[in-house]
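INTERNAL TRANSFER SHEET
From: sequence group
To: structure group
Subject: Bifunctional glutamine synthetase adenylyltransferase/adenylyl-removing enzyme

Please process the attached sequence and return the structure record in the designated field. Keep the field labels unchanged so the import script can parse them.
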Amino acid sequence: MAKPATQRPTLPSVGRLGLVAPTARDDLDRLGWNTDAHVELLWSLSRAPEADEALRAIVRLAEALDGDWDELNRALLTDKPLRGRLFGVLGSSLALGDHLVARPQSWHLLAGDVGLPSAEQLVREFVDAAENVTGPAAVPALRSLYRDRLLILAALDVAPTVENEPVLAFSTVGKHLSDLADAALASALVVATRTVCGPDTDVPKLAVIAMGKCGARELNYVSDVDVIFVTDDAAHSSMALNTRVAGELMRFAGDAFFEVDAALRPEGKQGQLVRTLESHVAYYERWAKTWEFQALLKARPAAGDADLGAQYVDALMPMVWTACERPDFVPDVQAMRRRVEELVPAGVRDRELKLGTGGLRDVEFAVQLLQLVHGRTDDALHVSSTVDALAALGEGGYVGRDDAANLTASYEFLRLLEHRLQLQRLKRTHMLPEPDDEEAMRWLARAAHVRPDGQHDAVGVLREELKRQSMRVSRLHAKLFYQPLLESVGSPTVELSASLSAQAAERQLAALGYEGPQSALTHLAALTSHGGRRGRVQQVLLPTLLDWLSDTPDPDAGLLAYRRISEELADERWYLAALRDEGAVAKRLMRVLGTSAYVPDLLLRAPEVIRQYADGPNGAKLLEVEPDGFARSLVASSGRHADPVRAIAAARTLRRRELARIASADLLGLLEVTEVCKGLTSVWVAVLQAALDAVTRASTPAGGPPAVIAVIGMGRLGGKELGYGSDADVMFVCEPVGGAEESVAVKWATSIAEQVRARLGTPSGDPPLEVDANLRPEGRSGPLVRTLASYRAYYAQWVQTWEVQALLRAHCVAGDEDLGQRFLLMIDDIRYPPDGVSASAVQEIRRIKARVDAERLPRGADPNTHTKLGRGGLADIEWTVQLLQLRHAHRIPALHNTSTLETLNAIGAAELIAEGDVDLLRQAWLTATKARNALVLVKGKPTDQLPGPGRQLNAVAQAAGWANGDGSEFLDNYLRVTRRAKTVVRRIFGE
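Return from structure group:
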């Protein structure tokens, strides 16, 4: 090393050079870089992405070179490209700095006229090196050669950061890394063959097929290399030998170069490591899933027998281009999209370059899907590189050329950042630094050639660019699929340049989940055909809306519903403005429309609820309505009208709005099922009260009403556990007032009750309002209204066991509160007898339950999946709870409760049955209730039978809040939960 000068000339300060390490000045002195001759060299050093790290590495390199340091020192003064390459790579990669210190003479590789060797030259170099080393020396020798080649590429890649060297194109870097991987695999195959077979055994015929980024020739600096092994000999001995060779290749490559991953082979990690070509073909013809054909888009022979590799590609590629015709193509694609999104924890999604929103996977997935859809009829799309595929899609008119160019630029920018992050320590990563890590962000900005722009420093520019690129990818991800579709229906805009044929448009829509692509195109044409602001806003909105719709269970119905709502609200400026300006509104609306047949009709008549899809200060505005406050509002609004028709119409209007709000919040996962049931009960109670008040006002004679009336809720209404498809089970009780005769009072009250039932039951286009009074004494044959005394007399003499059981859920819901409470006090001795229910009554309940199980299930219904009467369904749970109430409520006051869930909690607290059994019953009730509600939301009408596997079951799963909308998983869970609950039910009813 040079001796420090005795007198330091005027040189840039370490601060101006960007050196902040305390030892920086001493390090410069140790190197002798303290004379006027070193000024230009120091300024080059200052432009390194991390100048301190570069300086420290130079000091270590000088110590490693010892007497040969002077040669490098002189070269750095005269060879400007060498300075750029060396300072650039040392300031970008700690790992390559360590490699240079370990092999200090490798600096010569960066001096002079440096270029990248061809693929053939690399293979020859690596294979020769493999053949010249044996035993334990093979790994370090080939690892050093591989790192030397990485050093050259990285130095050329980052040199422009320091000096004005030519910038290597992204495609050049990816291709060279892939060529380098091919060469490494070829050398690993030589070593593996020699290790397994020895010098005297015939070399097996084995082809190594590159997959993933290596297969596409767009590899990262650090990445697993995905491969598939193919042989042409099925003999047991040859297969065993080939498998050993393949295993040794993977082991050696992992030690010397990179991890080799063979998990993309047939049957994944559970499948054979090596298969014959015929075995591969047979597997893909019969068993392969959609994602496996998508993976084959990147397949390329990389090493081993070239002819066999070519035969593999030729045999399987035709299957790739017909994969979109498979019946499970659409659900597979949707499942893949969901799976990718679920892989990234929400807390790091903004930092994930690969899997985050607007990240690399979004681009790759979109491009590959378009290739699969259109590649069947267009050979120009049969390319493996993402960038090449984007260019081909643009040339073919499947995406706009500007969109293809912009997406390519965003993709290459994100890949550049990925490369820089991996170079630093030669570790596999896709994660950006923490947002508040200024030093790490500054290093990344400099390494990625990001410069200040006058308004922001380099870090600020990088942050803005990341935000812009991520937003552009997210926007173009949707536009890529749908903007050409809009042009194909005759609504081009200035920025469009793609034009799909009608057949291509239908094919693309079908692949995105639309079962009626022709109808979908008709809807798109209608939505975008209007001139002026309305049509322009729809053209801007639709690509994103259609993308969100395609991820719902029924995008066809969703698009039709969106068209109907858009046409209904054509003159409402707030509507399109809300969709355009409130991202949450548009996304939530698409999810609701693509899942439910129940809500769209409500929204057509109560469109103001769409505004509540927006986020408010405390979450979604859908949750800002308080049920009790709504009920008071409905009754008050109805009370402003003297005419009962208008009064009930006002009540219907508010009911419609509230149903739309509750159902929307339910579908969006914002409400628990118990809150939904209470909210729906609150709606029914308010409507009953409003209707009773309206009819009573209109029917009251001049001298005042001859009676007071109370409405007793029964069943789920009494338990505050109504579902979307539930009727209102009620009983009417009256009492004469003002000295009226009982017969007159009953007659008047009966007229009131009949009018309430008739007016509420009148068809209105809304979900039905059926008031069912069949649980009254003597059922349909008995009087609709009785006095309190009449009820008391009937129950004292004639009450049947099933009526006692029904009274367990009786609760006053409307009308005269005092009368209602006196009715409940009267029936308490009947439903909670002081000495408990008799043994004969228990036997009667068991007999009735057995009869219900045998006779009540509808013909053709599946007893395993009928949510009400099926195995472990609602009836099973409710009858079990009610039997326990009848047997124990006389001594446990907590069981005096009309709610099934609250009573279950009391049963558990009283230890009447094991807590585990209570939990099984609770889970079954919640599961069946969610499923029953979801069935109504999806089908738009009351039903209790779960559908079989398919789109509708997926919709029910999503409506029921199942995380990924997978109908099969939802059904498996339903069957498991109800089966376990049925075991408890049988045990209790069998005691």
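Handover comment: The longest strand covers residues 728-736. The two ends are 95 Å apart (CA to CA).
Transfer complete.
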